[in-house]
Design goal:
By secondary structure, this protein is of the alpha+beta class. The chain has three helices and 16 strands. A four-stranded antiparallel β-sheet has the order 3-2-5-6, with no helix packed on it. It has a four-stranded antiparallel β-sheet with strand order 10-9-12-14, with no helix packed on it. Helix 2 runs antiparallel to helix 3. The N terminus is likely disordered.
């Protein structure tokens, strides 16, 4: 029995041992994420992690909503020492004028890979190798060397019916801001916020008056004046809340029909 108990104790102690995770990367300030938990910058590794199966991610520290990331799967046993190599992908942003052109990567061996339609973002473990070709009906192909280190690429396609010596321009649709419209929108937003604050203020005062009227051990218990105050303040709160809701509704409608 003692041997069995000792074996169980040793097994329990072994299962409680954490594993150790080392992360090697060319971007030491990138964040290491274990499933949804941020462990810290890669430069701070090693990290102690619980045994189990995990997804380890290296996330760009820029804070951008579409930051680059690289992932790998690991299985950690108690007391294990794990080492993973993770590097952020090389990102290439591809744009074209006009928009919505198909972009193809023409590799040095002559093969082609369709990357997508502009504007697009391509993340690869290594940079693109070859030439980028943009194609759009009614336009001559635009070709540029793919940047191996990533970055931004702009491709301008020339209309087919345009003479070789004729200049051309592309225009993108824009909307001029109307000062009166902007002022009205700002005013509606400010009114909604202010009315909401007033509604909350009067609601708190109404609740306090109602509590004073209903508190059995208080001096104001049963005092009708406090009950009247509570009803009056509730009315003020309701009116202010209505103004706030109406202002938000009008603002939402204005934004929807633009």
């Amino acid at each position: 029995m003692r041997l069995v108990a000792l074996s169980l104790l040793l097994a329990s102690a072994a299962s409680a041992q954490p594993a150790t995770l080392f992360v090697a990367t060319e971007t030491p300030n990138a964040l290491v994420v274990l499933d949804d938990a941020v462990l810290g910058p890669a430069a701070d590794s090693p990290f102690a992690i619980e045994p189990g199966a995990w997804t380890v991610a290296l996330v760009e520290p820029s804070g951008a909503w579409d930051g680059r990331r690289a992932t790998t799967e690991v299985t950690a046993r108690p007391g294990d020492t794990l080492s993973v190599d993770l590097n952020l992908p090389v990102r290439t942003r591809i744009e074209s004028l006009p928009l919505h052109a198909e972009v193809v990567l023409l590799r040095p061996d002559g093969t082609e890979e369709v990357l997508g339609t502009t504007p697009l973002v391509v993340d690869r473990p290594e940079g693109l190798d070859g030439r980028l070709v943009a194609r759009l009906d009614g336009h001559t192909e635009a070709v540029v060397e793919a940047p191996e280190a990533g970055g931004r690429v702009s491709l301008v396609l020339r209309p087919d019916d345009l003479a070789a010596d004729e200049t051309f321009t592309h225009s993108l649709p824009t909307r001029r801001s109307n000062p009166r419209r902007v002022a009205l929108d700002v005013g509606l937003g400010a009114l909604a916020v202010a009315a909401g604050a007033v509604a909350v203020h009067y609601k708190f005062r109404a609740d306090a008056a109602d509590d004073a009227y209903r508190q059995p051990l208080g001096r104001t218990f049963g005092d009708v004046s406090y009950l009247n105050d509570a009803r009056r303040l509730d009315t003020y709160s309701g009116v202010a809340l209505g103004v706030s809701t109406a202002s938000l509704g009008v603002l939402a409608l204005r934004l929807a029909i633009r």
